[in-house]
Amino acid sequence: MRLGLFGGSFDPVHRGHLLLAECCMEQGGLDRVWFVPSAVQPHKPGGPVAGDADRVRMLRLALEGRPGMEVSTLEVERGEVSYSVDTLREIRRQLPDAELFFLMGADTLHDLPTWRGPAEVLALATPMVVCRPGEPEPDFGVLSGLVGGDRLAAIAASRVAMPATEVSSSDLRRRIAVGEPWREMTDAAVADDIEAHKLYGLGNREQ
Ligand SMILES: Nc1ncnc2c1ncn2[C@@H]1O[C@H](COP(=O)(O)OP(=O)(O)OP(=O)(O)O)[C@@H](O)[C@H]1O
Ligand SMILES: O=C(O)c1ccc[n+]([C@@H]2O[C@H](COP(=O)([O-])O)[C@@H](O)[C@H]2O)c1
């Protein structure tokens, strides 16, 4: 099985995340994609804005009716700071025969050498890097001190192209808080859920 792991804060999940996973499934020939919300992303020590249960529920709603896409609660169940190397070790232990890919935008690739145990991360999973038009080309050379030339070429060959989607979780949260249009930036079921639970300061301005 070719399994794609897509880690992020998903605070909240948005159309860019969903499109990225779809493009990787199609172009990267993945059988499954697991979205792995982090408890606390190591480089975002303040932690997410929404709680674990809210982010997991929104992800499940977004992935309903998307065959092969699921949520893994491994990191939120482990709690504390979510190091990807720990998550990959655990998934490798559970699924020894799966071929693991780690889905990421080019921005995350450039950050990867600063992660905990980056060489082990690269031994456990192959980064599947998504390139967006209008963004700088991913610089696979940032991994050259961590993997050999053949492996580097294989990682570069796994790259996937996707159309630009000008959306980020932080902009979505900002729009909700200040009352700008935001629903189109995410899945309709997620937008309904944000409204039902009054997440991200929704409605605070009117009170
Ligand atoms: N619009 C987008 N298009 C494609 N990939 C994206 C987009 N937004 C985020 N990603 C990718 O999704 C992954 C998880 O990102 P994350 O959950 O932190 O979302 P984010 O929108 O970047 O959040 P924030 O704005 O809070 O930093 C990262 O690898 C990031 O590169
Ligand atoms: O393991 C680490 O040291 C590490 C440091 C920074 C980010 N990550 C992971 O990278 C993924 C993308 O994170 P983000 O929030 O930068 O989009 C997510 O799964 C994070 O847990 C992992």
Automatic annotation (TrEMBL):
Keyword terms of this UniProt record: ATP-binding, NAD, Nucleotide-binding, Nucleotidyltransferase, Pyridine nucleotide biosynthesis, Transferase
InterPro entries found in the cross-reference section: Cyt_trans-like (IPR004821), NadD/NMNAT (IPR005248), Rossmann-like_a/b/a_fold (IPR014729)
Known EC number: 2.7.7.18
Database matches in Pfam families: CTP_transf_like
Pathway stated in the Swiss-Prot or TrEMBL entry: Cofactor biosynthesis; NAD(+) biosynthesis; deamido-NAD(+) from nicotinate D-ribonucleotide: step 1/1
One MF term in the entry's GO annotations: nicotinate-nucleotide adenylyltransferase activity
Domain Cytidyltransferase-like residue range list: 5-175
GO BP annotations, alphabetical order: NAD+ biosynthetic process
Catalytic activity: nicotinate beta-D-ribonucleotide + ATP + H(+) = deamido-NAD(+) + diphosphate
Main EC class the enzyme belongs to: transferase
Entries under CDD domains matching the protein: NMNAT
PANTHER family hit by this protein: NICOTINATE-NUCLEOTIDE ADENYLYLTRANSFERASE-RELATED, PHOSPHOPANTETHEINE ADENYLYLTRANSFERASE
Family named by the database record: Belongs to the NadD family.
Function (record text): Catalyzes the reversible adenylation of nicotinate mononucleotide (NaMN) to nicotinic acid adenine dinucleotide (NaAD).
Protein name listed in UniProt: Probable nicotinate-nucleotide adenylyltransferase
Chain's gene name: nadD
